[in-house]
Amino acid sequence: MRPVLSIVMPARNDNYMGNSNWRLETALDFLAIELDKLNKLKDVEVIIVDWGSKVPLHTVLTLNEKADSIARFILVSDSVINTIKIDSDFPAVIAANVGIRRAWGNFIALSPADILFTRRFFKRLFDILHGESDVGAPADKSLFVFSRKDIPTHITDQNLSISDLSKYIAENDKKILPISLHPYYLTPASVLMMHRNLWFASHAFDENLIHWGWSDIDLCLRMRLRHFITDMSKEDVMCLYHLNHYTQGFTRTKMSYPSINPFVVNNKRWGLADYTLEEVSKVPKTVDLDISSMPVDITYETSDANKYFRVRHLVNLIEFFLKNANIGNLKLVFSHSAIILFQYPFMKKIFPLLKRIKRSPVQQ
Asked: 147 falls in which pLDDT band (50, 70, 90)?
């Protein structure tokens, strides 16, 4: 029997943005305690994709008994990373796809490794997933987008206990404003969740977007081609909590360029399907999963949504604007339309030519 939910958290033992191991350990312990209060531990698994850690995370984290019982550590070794020759410090999309591909749950969520999931969040979520609460679209045909509130760095720097963090949230919840999401791109989302059938039919995140940014936007745009986007950021009980972090002087030097994709991306071997990866876990295996022979719904690959996907992206953008007409969204229409148009094959040939055309010198 499958778990109701798999939560995938790419991470590694590299002290990213300071004390990342404490943030991951705290997130896992907090999550498990909240689930246990609802008697839902058996309904959730957490997959930590440990990408290239010199010292594996499972050897350095000290988890409580409840977190230890639901955590699966999937290790991607340096030898695998060197084989696929990734030009990035941390190709998070591939790490995410590794976990998604190997998840057992009916629904699969991607989360940063420092998000606190609360009891009230899970109570509402299970109501939705069990069909006991209506969100205006079928749960199994929707991309769910969740927002967050940032717990300030001066608080997270104190390495508070679970009980002290819970007390801080209870006392300060109304003072912390949620992060606003872009009206169309729905970024910066905290967590993205879909039914496993949608992840597998679409081949998950575009593995060409190995640098920072755009991969979540790309997924949202692609889901609009065939399914529903369910924005949960307006519900306060569905807001999550981020253990904020900051390293002075840190800058991102590698960014992904915007791309306009069809519904299906990657090839059928996405998520390192051809690799047998080590797993460390106390979670009882409930599903026989042969990741090398996952069925693929070829109707998605031959549908009009894939064949005429750029036109459909433009239609979706226009429909959004007609429902949400204002100056800011009008600017979005022009900027996003330009991204779509310039990614037509013939424009990719014309644009470099236009750049080479020099204007005639002005007559004196």
From this structure: very high
Residues of the chain above pLDDT 70, percent? 87
C-alpha–C-alpha distance, residues 7 and 41, integer Å: 13
Q: Which residue has the tokens 């998950």?
A: 204
What total of structural domains would you count in the chain?
A: 2
Question: Is residue 242 a part of any domain in this protein?
Answer: yes
Taking alpha carbons only, the member of 89, 81, 125 closest to residue 105 is: 125
Residue the block writes with tokens 């013939």 = 346
Tokens read off for 93 = 């999309």
- Evaluate whether 124 touches 237 at the Cβ level (below 8 Å): yes
Output the six-digit token pair for 20: 């990342």
Same domain, 275 and 313: no
Contact 209, 93 (CB under 8 A): yes
Query: How many other CB atoms are there within 10 angstroms of residue 151's CB atom?
Result: 20
Q: How many residues does the chain have?
A: 364
At 99-141, the pLDDT tens digits run 999 999 999 999 999 999 999 999 999 999 999 999 999 999 9
The domain in which residue 342 lies consists of 308-356
125 and 214 in a common domain = yes
Of 265, 271, 261, residue with least CA distance to 10: 271
In a domain, 22, yes or no: yes
Residue 222, burial from CB neighbour count under 10 angstroms (0-12, 13-18, 19+) = buried
The pTM for the full model equals 0.90
**Residue 91 CB contacts under 8 Å (≥ 6 apart), including other chains:** 51, 207, 210, 211
Tokens of 94: 């591939």
Which pLDDT tens digit goes with each residue over 159-176?
999 999 999 999 999 999
- Say yes or no: 144 and 260 in one domain: yes
Tell me, yes or no, whether 361 lies in a domain. no
Let me know: does 133 contact 235? Beta carbons within 8 Å. no
Structure tokens at 279: 């797993």
Give residue 68's identity as a one-letter amino acid code.
D
